[in-house]
Amino acid sequence: MDQVGKIEKKDGDMAAITVKNVLRCGDSCRHCSAGCNIESVLIHKKVDPEIREGDFVEIRSVKGANRLTTFLMYAIPATFIAGSILFIYLFTDRPDKERLAGIAAIVSLLLGEVVVQVVRKMRAKKNELNYRVGRKL
Predict the structure, then answer these.
(1) What order do you get walking across the sheet with 56-61 strand by strand?
(2) Which parts of the chain register pLDDT below 70?
(3) Which of 9, 40, 76, 100 is spaced 20 to 30 A from 20 at the CA atom?
(4) What is the pLDDT of residue 89?
(5) Cβ-contact 134, 1 below 8 angstroms
């Protein structure tokens, strides 16, 4: 068993399942002081008829399936920040380049976060192929 999913909503044989991502450091987040924010993934999959809303099911994920999403989550904001700073330094002759570069980095970080959220929502349907619903727990 890789992960545990909770059936949030069921419509016929299709179910909306919330899958909690598990970090590499383990699943003892209550006792950890690192302050990680674990986001859940919502997938829609076909399930057995005996599974009801509120039930927990076994979820198996395809090995290495989320690497591209993780890469994009870090690469998009980093590219935006580097591009904006490079643009400021190469194409402006103002004496306050450092301040403009700082402002551009903050704005590009915010813009990168918006783009990451849009990409995450677009890939949500594709990510459903990366999960298999197992037995009821």
Answers:
(1) 40-46, 14-20, 3-11, 56-61, 131-136
(2) 1, 21-39, 63-66, 124-129
(3) 76
(4) 82
(5) yes
β-strand partners of 19: 5, 41
pLDDT value of position 34: 63
Q: Which two tokens stand for residue 74?
A: 């870090």
Token representation of residue 136 = 């009821």
Q: How many other CB atoms are found less than 10 A from the CB of residue 81?
A: 19
Q: 4-43: buried (b, 16+ CB within 10 Å) or exposed (e) per residue?
A: bbbbeebeeeebbbebbeeeeeeeeeeeeeeeeeeeebeb
Contacts of 11 (CB under 8 A, 6+ apart): none
Residue in the block written with tokens 């990451």: 116
